[in-house]
Every structure is written in structure tokens, then in C-alpha cells.
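Blinded run. Sample ID left blank on purpose so nobody reads anything into the name before looking at the predicted structure. Input follows.
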Amino acid sequence: MVAPDAAGPGWGFLFPGQGAQYPGMALDLLESPRVQALFELCSACMGRDMEALIRDGSAETLRQSDIAQPAITLANLAAAAFLEEAGIAPRACAGFSLGEYAALVCAGVLSAGDCFRLVTARGRAMQDAADRIAQSSGGRRPGMAAVMGLPAGQVEALIAQWTAEGLEGLYGANYNAPKQVAVSGTAEALDAAQRRFKEAGARRVVPLQVAGPFHSPLMAAAAAAFAPELEKTAFQDPALPCYSNVSGAMLGSGAEAKALALRQLCEPVRWIGEEAALAARGGLEAVLEVGPGKVLLGLWRDTGSAIPCYPAGAKEDIQKLLGNPGGPGASGLLAGVLGGKAP
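Blinded prediction complete.
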């Protein structure tokens, strides 16, 4: 999925992560032969009919990490393939949490087959780790919550203070926006944190639709289980700019991408830094949220960047981007952003 003339101006692709899933996602893109091939490949890697799973699976089923991770990655790559068939190819890419794997495919670091195999193993390892934590907590499941209205530094300071006072199992996980930080923790820690963050001035504390305490030390067992699968996979050097959750910076090599992919399980997502690095590279007329949902669209707008961001995860979104409900064409938003020129 690497674009030609990757150094030229054009589009940045942003791929969403776990929590963006919904029943029926990406099925509207199946008219594309490339999307059909991706569904077949993912089904073979996972050992399940992905079209039937996404069509018939409940929201609760799709929330499980061992199912959500290959399904969301499939939806992300399906949207990217559909876009590229319409003439919209990336010049740079980044992915939020799980979404980083789709970005690695688009940058030529991973093959689609290796990507589906890895996210299937990753999702299974993360689900198993979360299940074990729940079993040790009387069945209460660990998870994540978004803290709205407090700056990242204050959230970090509060977690450090509460940990020193004896609160165990709470960690900063996703640095999403200047005043939005997702925290990971045990059920007990999240219960306590919700009350304490509100007392400290948080506008809202919102539980996230994920199945575990991701990007925290609580995922250490998942990282250990995933490491052998990761180690045997070939990572190529990026063929276009691709950014890391762990560092917030552009990846320099395939070896770096592999090392950071393991660290990503237990370390925070530095999305604010990634967005800044992507915007600063120059040459991008717009960025697109390539996959289910519109969470990254909101986070991008929170940066105040002059570069616009558009949803591009569903057929309707892509048709609006092209400005032609009947098929591809350089008009509408596409023409407006690119001055009437096809990308």
C-alpha cells in the first residue's frame, strides 16, 4: 500500500485503534476487489469468516481484544485500499494504538498477512492478560477511562500522588489531547480515580469501550506472550514517513519499529506528539481518519492545526470526500483541498 512519489505533497492517513469498532464496519467497502481480498486474507489468518463476524457479531463480541484487533485492522486497511483505488494515497501515516499496525502496512514495514497474524496474536495475548487480572479481582474487569478537562501534567502528578498514598494499579496510558488523557487500571483503581479526578476538577471521566488496561505495566504478561510472535516477523524499513506511539516521532528503521511495537503494549501512546510531528513535516494538504469512527478527527481538531482532517472510513465518507456519490472524481472536498488537482 505504499504510495508512489511518497515525498510529494498530499494526504496524511490516521488509523484508529481499539474502541472504534462497531458491527457492520467496512462491509460497505466490499464492492472493491482489493477489499474482498483483504477480508479473505484476514479470515485465513484468524481462522474465522470475518465478513460474517463483523456483520452478525454483537457490539460486546466485537469489544473482545482477540476479535476487535484483527477486525479493526481489517476495517482500517479496507478503507485505505478503497481510498487508494479512488486515487487517494498516503504521503505519511500514523495509527493510534492498534491503528499503528495498519500504518506500518501502508508504510511498507509489514505485509498485510504478517500484520493480520500479529494483531490476532496481540489481541489474544492482551485478552488473556486482562482475563487473568479480572480473575484475581473477583471477576471485576480492568479497563480504561478518559479524563476530560485536566492537562496531562496534572493527571500525571495526581496519579503519582495517589500511588505514593497507596492507590495501586492506575497509570497514564493515552495522551490524546491537551486536556484529555486516558488512564488504565484495575477496576478498583478506576473506581477510585473517577471520584478523585472529578474532585480535582475534571469535567468528565468516561469509561472506554476496551477490554483491558492497555498501554500500562498491567500488560506485561501480554508483552511476554506476544514477543516470540513479533520476533519471528520481518519488519522492513519505512518507505514513507510513519510515526511511533511510544516516541511520538518518525520511525527511522524496521528494527526500531519492531522494538517499539513490543514496548507499545506497556508504555503510553504519545498521540499529541505524533500529531505535532506529522503536522510539522510539511507538504500535507489534509489528513484523513482512515477506519471506523471519528475519534481521531476530534483529537486532530483539538490541536488547532490549520491542516484540515476529514473522516474516510466508510463509503459515504469517501464519496463525500470525492464529491461524487456515483463514484470516483476530483471534485467536492477533494478539489477544494487540492486546488482542483487529483492527488
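Unblinding after everyone has recorded impressions. The domain at 10-131+218-338 is CATH 3.40.366.10 (Malonyl-Coenzyme A Acyl Carrier Protein; domain 2).
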